[in-house]
C-alpha cells in the first residue's frame, strides 16, 4: 500500500466527517471489521450457503442412515447368522491387513527415508504403485498371476511341482488389502519421521549408540503417533473395501459386510432390502467413529518438531543384502502382477502360451470400442468431472472460512467436512440410497454425484487449508484498508492465492472418482454404469480378457495422472 493511497483515504475520510458535522450529524469512527463476519458484510452469506450445502451433502445422508438403522425392522437383520459371520470377517480382515500394512509402511519409511539405501527415489515411486491402482484392479492382477492357468502355476508345473497356488479366500483378502494400503501407511509414517529432530539422534550417537540402538531407542518410540495414525487410516479404509473381498473372497464364500450389502441389494428375493442395508451401514458407521475417537483420545507425542533431519543411518554390511531384498520384493509385489494383467489382456484367451506370436491388441480394441465400455467411460468422466468441480468450489469455500474467519461454528464445519473421509464408502452409499427417493433423484446419476462429493470433499479442503494457513493475511488486510468489503478482499486476494491448491485437489478428486467402485456398484442404475462397474461386470461375466484390457487402461491412466499431479504439486511447493 503506497503513501499516496493512504493520504487519499485520510483526506476523503476527513472531508466526509466535515460534511456530516456541517449538517448537524454526529459521525462515529468506523469500527474495525470482525474476521468472523457480521450481517451484511458478505461473509455471513458465504457461511450460510456453505452450511446449507454441507447439511444437504453430509448431514442429510448420515441423519437418514441413523434414523433408518435404529428402526425395529432394521435391527432384525442382526439376528441373521450371515451378518455375524460377515462382521467377524470384516473386522478380522481389516485388522490383519492394517497391521501388515503398518508394519510394511514403517519398514519402508525407515529404509527409504533414513538409511543409506541406493536408488531411493526410484524405489519410492515403485513402492507407491499399488496406491495409484484401484484395489479391485489390483485384485484382478493377482488373479491373473495366481490363476489356475497363470504364469506362477505354469512355472511350477514346468518344474514338476504339483501345487496349485491360489489367491482366493480369506488370507488372499487380507494380503491384498495390505498390499493396497501399505503405501498410505508409508506416506503417513514417512511424514512423521521427517519431523523427528536430528539432535535427538545426535545425542544418542554421542552417547555411543549404534544404528540399531538409535532405531530402537529414538526413532521407533517417536514414531508412535505416525504408526497409530497409519493403522487407523488403513483400518477404516480396509473395513469398507468392496472390490477385493468381492473378487477374492466370494469365490470361496468369504463374505464381508460390504459384499453382504451388495448381495442384499442385488437379491431378487428381498422386496425391501433398505432396512437391512441401513442397519449394516449404521454398524460400519459406529465402528469407524469409535476407531477415530479412540485415536483422538490417545496422547500425542510432543517431542516431534520442525528441527533439522538427522543423518543417514549406515546399514554397514547388511546394506547390499537389504537392498537386493527390497528390490526383489518390490518387483514381485508391485510390478509382476501388472505384467500378469497385461499378458492376460494381450492374450486371446486364458491358458494360451505367452509368446510373441500370441500377443494381440484384439481385447483392448474390442473392449475400448464396445458400447458398454464407452458408456462407462462417459459416465465416469461426467460424474468424476462434476464431483471435481463441486468439491473444488465447496472445498475452497470451506477452507477460506476455516483459515480466514474466527467463528464459533468453525469446529463443527471442520468436523463435517473431514468426517466423510473417515467413513467407509458403503456408509456414504447407503446414506444417499436412503435420501434419493425423498429428493427425487433415485436411479439417476445425481445420487452418485452427491455421494462422490460427500466422499471426496475433504481432499480439496486439506489441499487448500494447509497452504492458506501458512500465508499471511497482510494482503487481505491491505485490501480491506483500501475500502474492500471482507468478502471482496477474500475473493480478490485470498481466493487467488488458494486457487492453484484447490485445482490440484480437484484433479486428485477427478482421478480418484473416475476409478471408484464401492459407491458406484451400490448406487448404479440403468444408464449410470461407471467405468469401475463395467470392469467388474466383465469380470463377473467371465470375459477375463476384456476385463483385464479395460483394467489395464485404467491402471495406466491412473499411474500417469496421479504421478503427474504429484510432480506438479511438489514443483509448486519447491518454488
From TrEMBL:
Entry keyword annotation includes GTP-binding: no
Annotated region described as Disordered, given as residue ranges: 1-40
Pfam families named among the record's database cross-references: BPD_transp_1
Gene Ontology BP terms: transmembrane transport
Record's GO cellular component terms: plasma membrane
Main location: membrane
Residues of the ABC transmembrane type-1 domain: 87-295, 377-565
Subcellular localization, as worded in the UniProt entry: Cell inner membrane; Cell membrane
Segments traversing the membrane: 44-67, 87-111, 123-145, 165-193, 214-237, 274-294, 322-347, 383-402, 423-442, 448-468, 550-569
Keywords in alphabetical order: Cell inner membrane, Cell membrane, Membrane, Transmembrane, Transmembrane helix, Transport
Lipid bilayer topology: Multi-pass membrane protein
Protein family per UniProt: Belongs to the binding-protein-dependent transport system permease family.
Protein name per Swiss-Prot or TrEMBL: Iron (III) ABC transporter permease
Biological source species: Paeniglutamicibacter gangotriensis Lz1y
Gene coding for it: fetC_1
